[in-house]
Design brief:
Number of helices: 32
Radius of gyration: 30 Å
Number of strands: 19
Strand content: 5-15%
Shape: globular
Largest sheet: 5 strands, antiparallel
Structural class: alpha+beta
Amino acid sequence: MLRKIDFSKALPHIVALVIFLLISFAYFSPVLEGKRLNQHDQKTFMGGAKEIIDYREATDEEALWTNSMFGGMPAYLISTEYKGNLIQHLNRLLQVGPRPGSQLFLLLLGGYILFISLRINPWLSMVGAIAIAFSSYNFIIILAGHNTKVIAIAYVAPVLAGIFMTFRGKRLLGAALTGVFLSLQILAGHPQITYYTIFIVLFFGVSEFYFSISERKLKDMLVSVGFLVVVVAFAVLSNFSRLATTLEYDDHSMRTKSELSQNEEDKTEGLNLSYATNWSYGIDETMTLLIPGFKGGSSAYELSENSNTYEALARLDKNFASQFIQNANMYWGDQVSTSGPVYLGAIIIFLFVLGLFIVEGRYKWWILGVAVLAIMLSWGKNFMGLTEFFMHNVPGYNKFRTVSMTLVIPQIVVPILALLALDKVLFGGIEKDKLLKGLKWSAGITGGLALLFLVIPSMAGNFSSPNDVRTIQAISGNNPQVQQMLMSTLPSALEADREAMLRTDSFRSLVFILLAAGLIYLYRIRKQKLNVNLVIGLFGILVLVDMWPVNKRFLDDDNFESKQRHTQPYTATTADQAIFQIKGLNERVLNLTTSTFQDARTSYFHHSLGGYHGAKMRRYQDLIDTRLVDEMTMLIGGLQQQDFDRIDSVLSELNIINMLNTRFIIINPESAPLNNRHALGNSWFVDEVIPAENADEELELVSTADLSSIALTDQKFLNRLENTSFQGNTSDRIELVDYLPNQLTYTSSAASERFAVFSEIFYDKGWKVTVDGEPADHIRVDYLLRGMTVPAGEHTIVFEFRPRSYYAGERISLAGSLVMLLMLAGAIIMEFRRKAEDQ
């Protein structure tokens, strides 16, 4: 039967795979030399995940908890392997070669599958794949180290491909592909991208519902929906362990509403408005989709020695000028900072606008609708009416930060309409007059905008940035003479370079638009004798030549480093070495020489009070916002006085720092740390447990009470205590005797019943405690620590982290993923049989 299949039809697909591999590893050629990309967030990940990875390598098991960041938190959203999900083996198979080449290949492959599902010519589908993969945002997040995000984005296109196939007659194969690729996307571990995928699907679904009614095919649509519901269910089951643990943690993370009563106007049921919208795209910044340098590029851009900035600074100091232009702040948009613009390609934007004139409504309107909505949502705080509506009313939307990320949606759907337009031009038999009209309007709109900013760049603004003044203040320090000198030269030079960049990029976009429009005009209007495959090849080259150099501005060969340096991201300092020599079990470190809550370097070596994570424990974030930063400020003030007695006095007043067992404070990386003798230890007995009516009162009491003798708890926990007053003597003791990230063993000795406080973060969705092997109970005390009644006598107390959501979820994931793979295999076999029978 298989002999009847015409394998020549597979040739374009084989060629596509080869071309994608060549493009991927040509762009990231340093990986072929054994080098690795220097990614900031990947190094941060390695810092935060060090304890988890070490435990996995030593035991071949998952820790599921780490104490290396923020006093302790679940490992689910840091580094956890879900071995029950068999789909992970397919994920490894699809990512060919070392990163980031494998990531770019996956983006290209996913885009290709999408356009093939739309029944677009395979050679033209390659052009579409390049358009989706080479969107600048992909390269910006690859450089940043957002690996889970870029993989999740890569799976958006094939998920849509499966859905399109399901609605276009190939229900079994389409549904199976939808389920597998959705399972792969969920496995990637970036729920925000999956959420945005749902946005696209909903708009497509509404469109299909409308047309199914108008065409009297509602029954067919509902059957297709039924197929998709089944496979979506199995995609969820395949990832049940990941989803169950994540959803369970969500109620305890900073992505849920704080119980504190402050800043009520800023709160939603998820993230605070100000936090979620911190990175909001400017309304006029949307022009970067067409003109990459519209807002100056990035906040750390490398200028040449021909730049106005270099020439201005070289007159003052050539060495300083050479250093400054390596990371000049060229960005002058509304965001706090940026690593680069979202650029979709001038040719793709031109073809998208052309599609609005010549493509039928079935695709055009839902694509336009979801693209426009996504763009408006990306404006965030610059368009608060819509933003607040979504944050307060659309389920799940308030769980995600960085609203500018919604631009992932247009980077997928805009090329779809663009390629549908080009397909119609080349193969659709469109009327000459209709095409000419559309060509004039699309070239006029997009080219006209580029021409406008080329001729009158001042229409974009004054090219100034408030960060220019901050940069000058940081450089000059307290030297007013240097500050005055820089103020008279640097801002105007930077503004001139930003204007020059806008002119240059407006010109390049105009050229690409005219070339694309001219190629269409020659082929269809003037009917020049051009082979259609030649035209497709020229479009592919033009799109690649348009987008490749823009991406190289932000990610080039200079961003790579040796493999050895990559695998050892941090080097222990003198302070680190000193701590290694004297630290005990689970003693925490506060590093004042880094951005404490935005850096995971300390976590690589120690159990840190800080770290970096976008979903910290809710109550720990409360402490940071309301107490910890204030205590750190007090400490820094005491250190500046260089008086030991004064420093010791300040340390004795830092309730939060001390209850978190902060034994060491790094104040200089090249000297011994400050040893904090006031840290309360791993655990201690208290004489009394005092209830608080609410979170506000509990936090206030924790900040002022003598925590060495009393414990505070929410009154809802009182019914789990038989006593709240305890008598002890000086011989009573409790100490940590054995440590694993997911198991803590203590021994206690007391003449009478006592209440013990443990300097460990309370999380009852997995932490269980036993006394001499018998189950016991523990409660939350001191706002976020653990506490329990300890019986008189000598005992062994063991806390163990074994979340049922993970272990039961793994079994469900195994079953779900097995069924999912069998469905895919069955669908492929049936598709081969069908094709054989048709020939």
